[in-house]
Amino acid sequence: MKKILLIQTGGTIAMNAKGEGVQLDPEAWSNTLIDRVPELQELAEIETYPLFFEDSSDLNASHWENLARCIESNYETFDGFVILHGTDTMAYTASALSFALINLAKPVILTGSQVPLSSIRSDARRNLINSVEMATTDLQEVAICFNDHVYRGNRSTKLSIGDFDAFGSPNHPTLAEIGLTIEMNVEAMKLLPA
Ligand code: ASP
Asked: 87 in ligand 1 pocket by Cβ < 6 Å?
């Protein structure tokens, strides 16, 4: 079984109902993950790493460096990496990592959700399962996996604040489409960035 490192950085996916609203909840996060997606361990041997808990609109270059170093120091131990991240600046982090992780030969998949994992109507469960599955493939780049699509990290953008289908890569074909089967677009993966 492949070994995947699941790195938590915050965002809506890491939020929990507290009092009147929802808040980032570092203490509850790993229990929520086990409660909501217990079968994740069937896809891969998963280790979790709570790196930081931030709304992604508060991130800066030092967080990107932190993430890149986390992947660098765990690179040999794991077959792939999934980064849980707020959606607002996910595309920026994906771009930064794609340039920081030179000669990357393993999948680094960013995902998040529009509704917290702790909520029953959350899109997080599907995004998580798809992302872990993608992290077990031969993809050799930084990608965003969201709502059944996989996009090249440095060609992706957030397109909607309200739809589950929140991302796109208007200038690059999708790397994979996830439906009844997973359709990997090998030609799109071979295309070098312009
Ligand atoms: N403000 C949140 C963030 O980017 C929104 C989200 O995760 O969807 O961290």
From this structure: yes
Structure tokens that stand for 25 in this block: 């909840």
SS3 content of the chain, % helix, strand, coil (to 5): 35, 30, 40
Tens-digit pLDDT profile for residues 64-108 = 999 999 999 999 999 999 999 999 999 999 999 999 999 999 999
Query: Which of 52, 33, 11, 60 is CA-nearest to residue 166?
Result: 11
- Show which residues are catalytic: 12
| Three-class secondary structure assignment of 129-159 | HHHHHHHCCCCCCEEEEECCEEEEHHHCEEC
- pTM equals 0.96
User: Look-up: residue for tokens 């915050």?
Assistant: 10
Pocket probe mutation, ligand 1, options 16, 25, 54, 56, max atoms within 8 Å of Cβ:
56
* Residue 1 CA, ligand 1 centroid: distance in Å: 32
Q: What three-state secondary structure class fits 188?
A: helix
Which residue type sits at 171? N
Q: Is 111 in the pocket of ligand 1 (CB under 6 A)?
A: no
Q: How far apart (Å, rounded) are the C-alpha atoms in residues 174 and 156? A: 9
Taking 80 as the threshold, does the pLDDT of residue 28 lie above it?
yes
Distance 159 CA to ligand 1 centre (A): 13
- Confidence band for 194, pLDDT divided at 50, 70 and 90: low
